[in-house]
Amino acid sequence: MLRHPVQWLRDHPQAWDALLALALGAVSLVGLLTIDPEMTSESNREVDVLGVALAVTIWCAVALRRRNPEAVTWVVTGLIVAYWVLDYVDSGVTIAMLLMLYTLAAHVDRPRSLHVGLVVGLALVAVMVVGVVVDDEDLPAIAVVANTVIFATAWTIGDSVRNRGAYLAEVEARAERAEREQAAAAELAVQEERVRIARELHDVVAHSVSVMVVQAGAGRRVLDRNPAQAAEALAVVESTGRNALEELRRLLGVLRHEQGATAIEPQPTAGDLTALVEQWRDAGMDVELDLDEEPSELPAGIGLTVYRIVQEALTNVMKHAGPARAHVAVRYDDAVHIEVTDDGRGSPPHDDVPSSGQGLIGMRERVELFGGTLVIGARPGGGFRVRATIPLSRSAVA
């Protein structure tokens, strides 16, 4: 399908310049060859081959005006000065000079185009002044002023076009840059959300699976000699598995953008630590809880972090400490102080309890998110300690 001619010319500026030079050059040559001698001054030179050659060369140069505006401007200026000095009738070749001054200003940076334009303008004005001074040239002084204004106007229009083009290009660049930044921010938000969900999945799965594995193993070992105890262990497995399944459904609802489903199940907070510890006690862990009263205005994010740190620390006790006694302490002042210790052996995890290695990373990320610190290491007397400090604003502990 053929495109519109105007659009085609916009896509092929060199063809447009050639057609423009051909049209204006043809009009100029026709005027030069057909002008009435009586309408010219006595000083004008008769049209000859040299005059026609100069005019044709001028317009051929104009056809290349956008390839190298500065060089073509110098060439056209020299040809027009020669044309004027030889005193041929100006049948429109001055228009070529206007086109070149416009092109120079429109396609060359302002300092350079201004410098070249001033030199070219001074050269042209000098030739015209000579024409005023020489009596037989019969060139009025007003013509010098008029031509100078016209030349300056052509350069000014070209400079305005260049400025507008640069402004539009900058606007487009800013819009593209803003679009890229917006896309990058959206991608970063998606990545951060994925990390958060992955952390939540790890906390839920690691905690629940550890309890289920331990209880299933205990039930298997006592199944023959103590069916009641085995049944109790299986009940814990069932309850823990059900809770884990509900939590996983909630998190999957986030991935599916099911906002209504996420609103039904609130996130755990520091106020749920007692229930968490009871769950571990039901799983057979010997754990003691030393808990201050939770501030009424504790931020939800910090409350969730306190819960997850204790949950992960107790999960690690179950995985790594072997038979051990655990102690959980949570204190509030200008910060939340969390300490989970055990007196276990601190050996590598049980062979029958899975470990992902991501729990400590998740705890550290959660604490650092609120500008806190996390210290994890062996205790001098044996066992391990997890100690976290999360700063609070005064309003959070009021």
Rounded to an integer in angstroms, the radius of gyration calculated over CA atoms is 44 Å
Helix content: 55-70%
What class would the helix/strand composition place it in?
A: alpha+beta
**Portion in beta strands:** 5-15%
* Mean pLDDT across residues: 79
Order of helices and strands: HHHHHHHHHHEHEEHEE
Largest sheet: 5 strands, mixed
What does the secondary structure layout of this molecule look like, with pairings?
Blueprint (H helix, E strand, L loop, with lengths): L4 H7 L1 H22 L14 H14 L6 H17 L8 H14 L2 H24 L7 H82 L4 H29 L3 H6 L8 H10 L3 E6 L8 H22 L3 E8 L2 E8 L16 H11 L3 E6 L5 E8 L7
Parallel strand pairs: 1-2
Antiparallel strand pairs: 2-3, 3-5, 4-5
Helix pairs in contact: 2-3, 3-4, 4-5, 4-6, 5-6, 5-7, 6-7, 7-8, 7-11, 11-12
Walk me through what this model shows.
- The protein is an alpha+beta fold and 398 residues long.
- Among the domains are: 135 residues, no CATH class; 115 residues, Histidine kinase-like ATPase, C-terminal domain (Heat Shock Protein 90).
- The chain has a five-stranded mixed beta sheet with strand order 1-2-3-5-4, with helices on one face.
- A hairpin with a 5-residue loop joins β4 and β5.
Summarize this, please?
The chain has helices at residues 5-11, 13-34, 49-62, 69-85, 94-107, 110-133, 141-222, 227-255, 259-264, 273-282, 300-321, 359-369; strands at 286-291, 325-332, 335-342, 373-378, 384-391.
Name the features.
single chain, 398 residues, alpha+beta, five-stranded mixed β-sheet, disordered C terminus
